[in-house]
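One-letter codes give the sequence; the fold follows as tokens. An example follows:
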Amino acid sequence: NLLLNPTGAYDNFVRVTNGGGVAGNVFVTMFNDAGDSVNFTLAAGPIAAGASTDLISVATLYAEAQAADATFDVGTGKLRANFTGEFDPINVQNISTSTDGTTFFTF
């Protein structure tokens, strides 16, 4: 559940997949290195059964977190996030790009 700093050297994305048989929302709990947390509903909206979101940048997730709680701050550290859905199973992939943008790698 490691998410890189949204202002860091590497672009970082998540992709959420609904592996269940019903559509549903996704709920995110995001943590900073200090242990502060914020809860919010993923703005991508309900995900259809068997469908996935587009790649969502960590910067977008962080903006959603700050919209839910303006005092939540990543500082110079990294983020962690837990994702739960109104469906089961849920699969979350974390994808980063190389500094030159030519290569993807996953955590």
